[in-house]
Amino acid sequence: MTTAVHAGLTAAGTSRAEGTAGLLHRVARLLAAVLVVLAGTPLALVASRAHPARRAGITRVWARTLLRALGVKVHVTAPPAVVPPVAGAGGGGALVVANHVSWLYPLVIANALRAGHTVAAFPEGTTWCGRGMGRFRPAVFQAAVDAAAEVRPVTLRYREGGKPSTRACFVGDDSLLASALRVASTRDLVAEVTILAPIRHS
């Protein structure tokens, strides 16, 4: 499954030679990512004692820094009528639901959304390669119903050189290390986040 997915990337129009970063770039990205991850422990201790809004800010900065270290760019779009949640706005929480392709998604969502109490969930229950998606399990939404919180649908996809990419996918027997190496080796990987209109219930 994993091999077929990655091999299909060439058929989509992005060859390995075109999309692969040089050796020095790969090593630099991996070292930077390791340093950011190691810095996360003391930051977590500081954040645990901070105000929720400040804690969210620290998490956002850490996630953004790790994405940059890996060479991943994030593009966020939303329809004109949709306003992304802002910390403290409305005083309520939100359940963010998204399709799930990669272990990068929690980092991307922390970088793209700001809310006082936001919980992210992936109702598919598993990861997909990015060329398709699974059925959303309704049980995941019960927490939002019980808490009277709005649901924020978000779609995420990866592009490489302007074309769909599966290099960030994390499926089958793929290991986290192999996936991280593939991400760090990709020259122009962009995570596209589309924020859709919130779903409210009475």
TrEMBL record:
<dbReference type="GO" id="GO:0016746">
    <property type="term" value="F:acyltransferase activity"/>
</dbReference>
<feature type="transmembrane region" description="Helical">
    <location>
        <begin position="27"/>
        <end position="47"/>
    </location>
</feature>
<dbReference type="GO" id="GO:0016020">
    <property type="term" value="C:membrane"/>
</dbReference>
<feature type="domain" description="Phospholipid/glycerol acyltransferase">
    <location>
        <begin position="94"/>
        <end position="159"/>
    </location>
</feature>
<keyword id="KW-0472">Membrane</keyword>
<keyword id="KW-0443">Lipid metabolism</keyword>
<keyword id="KW-0812">Transmembrane</keyword>
<dbReference type="GO" id="GO:0006629">
    <property type="term" value="P:lipid metabolic process"/>
</dbReference>
<keyword id="KW-0808">Transferase</keyword>
<keyword id="KW-0012">Acyltransferase</keyword>
<dbReference type="InterPro" id="IPR002123">
    <property type="entry name" value="Plipid/glycerol_acylTrfase"/>
</dbReference>
<keyword id="KW-1133">Transmembrane helix</keyword>
<dbReference type="Pfam" id="PF01553">
    <property type="entry name" value="Acyltransferase"/>
</dbReference>
<protein>
    <recommendedName>
        <fullName>Phospholipid/glycerol acyltransferase domain-containing protein</fullName>
    </recommendedName>
</protein>
